[in-house]
Amino acid sequence: MSKVIISCAITGSVHTPSMSPYLPITPDEIATQAIEAAEAGASVLHLHARDPDTGKPSADPALFMQFLPRIKESTDAIVNITTGGGQGMSLDDRLAAAERASPELASLNMGSMNFGMYPMLGRYKTFKHDWEPTYLESSRDWIFRNTFKDIEQVLERLGQRHGTRFEFECYDTGHLYTLAHFLDRKLVTPPLFVQSIFGLLGGQGADTENLFHARRIADKLFGDDYRWSVMAAGRQQMPFLTMGAINGGNVRVGLEDSLFTRKGRLAESNAEQVRLIRSILEPLSLEVATPTEARQILALKGGDNVGF
Q1: What is the rounded CA–CA span in Å between residue 210 and residue 203?
Q2: Domain residues of the chain, as ranges?
Q3: Which of 1, 79, 216, 242 is deepest in the core (most CB within 10 A)?
Q4: Beta bridge partners of 121
């Protein structure tokens, strides 16, 4: 087995400021938590930006450029910039920061899907900002769009023009077949970094059967041409990551995916989640990959070839 790559998704666009006082909002908070996560053992940092005044997800490249250089100066971790963005963003919005920064790695959702965040409304009685309940409720009637043409554009604008490789986010089995379609067309090249995602409303459920089914189908479609990683939302985060790692997968933690370390206890930082999964992996004789090793495993262009 290869060493386990720990990715850390620092802030995302799902959770809102009222849900946790530890969710990083400002560029300074995002940079600080990203650096701490890298120091704790994360070799990949998956990054979104937020409006520093309201905490609302933002696609503004200027905000990204307030924390990207600081992260690069302080750590050799791999920067992975979202192309998923957040609700209401166009494809051009979602690509703007990555095109500006020319990162080693970018996320790429492998299809359009319903993306339901509205059930979280029932868990909170009050909100700090007026946009939060509206944002969550509007997901009841929101489709995250990534058509075949959209995916082609991302692959061309980032992959071909910038040499950026991708974290292929697969929320169901159909997304694996879509990725295989692009592999057949030679628009993507191995090794493929396949992120199997579980437990988000609109995607595959956090059931053990789905975890093993996703691995079987990926093995069938890609053979030795992919590197598997596992991400699960909320309370399923650590159990699914542990099962995935035992079965040869890499892992993704972070406050984008879960705000907790265990039932009823908020994670006080992204680094805390990194330390927790590391404390599970290492006693199982699973070694954690360094950024240098992760670059080799994923065949990335190197940290000297980015635009920040």
Answers
A1: 11
A2: 6-305
A3: 79
A4: none
H-assigned helices in the chain:
27-40, 61-74, 91-101, 131-138, 148-154, 161-162, 173-184, 208-222, 237-246, 270-281, 291-298
Sorted by sequence, the CB contacts under 8 Å of residue 133 that are 6+ apart come out as 121, 127
The pTM of the full predicted model, rounded to 2 decimals, is: 0.97
Fold held by 6-305: TIM Barrel (3.20.20)
Strand 78-81 relative to strand 226-232, pairing = unpaired
Digit-coded pLDDT (tens) for 144-203: 999 999 999 999 999 999 999 999 999 999 999 999 999 999 999 999 999 999 999 999
Residue 250 in contact with residue 293, Cβ under 8 Å? no
Indicate the SS3 state at residue 295.
helix
Q: Could you write out the DSSP letters of every residue in 228-249?
A: EEEEE-GGGHHHHHHHHHHTT-
What are the φ/ψ torsions at residue 229 (nearest 5 degrees)? -135, 155
